Amino acid sequence: MENLVPRINGHVGRLNRYLPFSAAHEQIYEEYQTGEDSLELQTVALEYAMLAVSKGARCVVLTGDAGHGKTHLCRRLIECVLGYDPPTSRDLLKSHCDATQLVEHVSDQQHPSLRIHKDFSELDPLAAATLLEKSAERSNEVLVVCANEGRLRAIVQSAAAGAVCFQIISLFERSFSSGLSSEDGSVHIVNLNYQSVSSLRAGGRAGLLRRTLQSWVDDGRRWQGCATCSLVNTCPIRRNRALLAEESLATQRIIRLEELFEAVERLGQVVTIREMLMLVSYLLTGGLQCEDVHKKSASKHNDVGWQYSWAFYNLLFSPPPAMSEDRLYKGIPVLNVFRRLDPGSIASRAVDDSLLNVGGVFPEGQLDLQFRLDSKLVDAAQGLDEFIGNPQTKAERARETEVAARAVRALRRRSIFDDAAAEKSLMARIGFRFGDEFLSVITERLTSPELVRLKNVVVAGFHSIQGLRMPRSEATLHLVDPAFGRASNDAAIIARRISSAHLQLLPARKAWPSGGEIWSICESVDWIDRTVVVRVQERDGRVIDIGLDLLSFECVTRSASGYVSEDFYAQEIRRIRAFLGRLAAQVNGADSEIQLFMDGKVQSVSIDMGVIQVGGS
């Protein structure tokens, strides 16, 4: 090691260009990427668009939030459909993608040409609508346009809108109930807001997050420069690479990271590809450049003990020192959601006893578990005993408490990824008591008796949200008359009763009638089921659905115990009560019998020839 000197790894510099708070953050945007630095992720959306073009599509609309890769898809279509090489396709993206010029096939004119507009927000809605209408008149070319949902609605509802615009808006609005991206194969809407960065394809292809990590972390060629750096053993960036690629638990840690991303997406958070790339870059570097590591390691007495703040599992839940929370969470908003799932803030007796009191769960001497308490270097792998000293002043006592608290959070967080002392599932350890049941419905792993029991829990949750106090084993859903809002402590008017046999719990993809159709939304993007659909089958064949994301499902199932925080779940409870009110309104108005819930019992009140009759049920 005597002959080694600090080195600069160009890969670390490239990673930092993906960060929104970096001075050179051009890598975030497709137009400024170079062939050397770009990450070519093959998405299902690209494959779907290519298939649509090959099957004779006339118009392909790419919609979704900024950052999903709409511009990237345009460039890849120029490459994959028209046969251009990457450098030429980048040039064409800048010069020929305002829809004024055709981009023809590189070799012949037998293939359909593409007319691409990479950003409809640059056009006036009238001009954009006119462009869409002209697509019906042109032959042997496909119009590809990019627009977010708000802009798309403004365009198709403008004064210049005609038959094509009407077809697009009708398809878009029906897609939420039909589950189709196209109804006739001529017009397609690829809604990238359904795209998941953590999904695993049925064919076994890794998700977008996993493939990004494989390229940036697993590829040893990108990290060769670190081998001859004198700081290789004290560099937190290099340590993150070891944790995620070199150690025996690396694969498990990546799986846990994917599961956390899945949980975030199932909370209703849309994670774009751009945001995922920014987040992975941040988890690896924490915003540090090689030069920053050199400066921090310059002191012989302080070269170890600061690196824990830049361990990927700490960066995921809290910002490193000297980085503003406001700056970080505005730049990478999804980190705000991860922060709320922080396992470092959740105490578990079984886990904490093993990690904090017994110790020895993790090997000693690991860089990310070294903490400096004044001049003393403490190894958190041995538990908390080493942090307990003999403070003489209030300031020393506060400092000891602060460092010990950081160590506790770090040990809990790392145990999530290493599965150390795990008696509970990941979902339970990040605060979701019924998270495993949610996943079991989505993956269709429940047996019939288990599904029946879970439906009873959901029914009990619906009762509690309406203010009804009924046994948890009640198999009939009682619906409070919407005119009375919710039940009081004393009595409630029951508008309707529905047997649990008429309730279904379905994953989102099974709730759509499209099934395995070639143009289904599930086949148009990297798909993940984000909701459990509660379906009520009416006698006339109609169905009434409500989709419950992870938080809404947790709200309903926790309510089954009789209490849930209405402040915390306020938005979810309002939506669920609106759904239950809609169900109650389906009652037959000709029925002269009134159901009254009183003292834990349902009684029927009817009027027969002017005589009021009361009966129990």
TrEMBL record:
<protein>
    <submittedName>
        <fullName>Uncharacterized protein</fullName>
    </submittedName>
</protein>
